Amino acid sequence: MHSLIATTALGGTEAQIDTIAGLTITECPYWAIASVAARSNSEKPMATAFKKAMGFGLPKPMQSTGKDGITAFWIGPDQYFIEAPIADNELLADTLATTLKQTASITEQTGGWVRFDVAGSGCSDVSERLCILDTRTMDEGAVSRTSLEHSGCFILCRKSDHFSVYGPRSTAGSIHHALVTAAKSALG
Q1: Distance between start and end Cα atoms, the chain
Q2: Which of 143, 156, 157, 162 has the fewest C-beta atoms lying within 10 Å of its C-beta?
């Protein structure tokens, strides 16, 4: 019999949390993620089915929406990431596939992406050292794709002092290192 132990993207059994001069960088492994892409000529039926099932609508371009701990954010034309607490939504992709039926293509993304939350008054000081995205001008709920540490990442503004950074799980160590290094450089 195997004795497997679940590990986070950074290789720990618990989420990594770093605090630097009042800024907190938190690895967030406890989220299920699924991608949703509308099939050809099914954009409106998909949006209607999604709203009926989830209780909130799909976001506009470069925005996010959410309710009851579940968030949808735009990743491209008629394409979205949906995230939800994994404890209650381990089968998120299956649930969405059942709900949206033939209107959308759903792909499980939980194991392919890592999320880091960066919270504190120095968030934008850190991000400006890492990417070209001006997070100071982002409104709550805004999302944008950018390059961070040579990886395509999404940055979601949860509040002016709280951002979520999503990147490929395979680059988790590099993204974490970049965030910590930039925080030490910016905040001291």
Answers
A1: 48
A2: 162
* Beta-carbon count within 10 A of 169 CB: 19
Structure tokens at 37: 């892409």
Print the SS3 string covering 100-129.
HHHHEEEEECHHHEEEEEEECCCHHHHHCC
What's the rounded Cα separation, in Å, for the pair 134 and 151?
Answer: 17
The token pair that represents 114 in the structure block: 């890592």
Cβ–Cβ under 8 Å, residues 127 and 163:
yes
Higher pLDDT, 150 or 164: 164
Q: Would you state the pLDDT for residue 149?
A: 86
- Average pLDDT value for the chain: 96
CA distance 96 to 89: 10
3-class secondary structure per residue, the chain: CCCCCCCCCCCCCCCCEEEECCEEEEECCCEEEEEEEECCCCHHHHHHHHHHHHCCCCCCCCEEEEECCEEEEEEECCEEEEEEEHHHHCCHHHHHHHHHHHHEEEEECHHHEEEEEEECCCHHHHHCCCCCCCHHHCCCCEEEEEEECCEEEEEEEEECCEEEEEEEHHHHHHHHHHHHHHHHHHHC
Distance CA 69, CA 84 (A): 6
Tell me which DSSP letter residue 76 carries.
E
Q: How far apart are CA 145 and CA 59, in angstroms?
A: 15
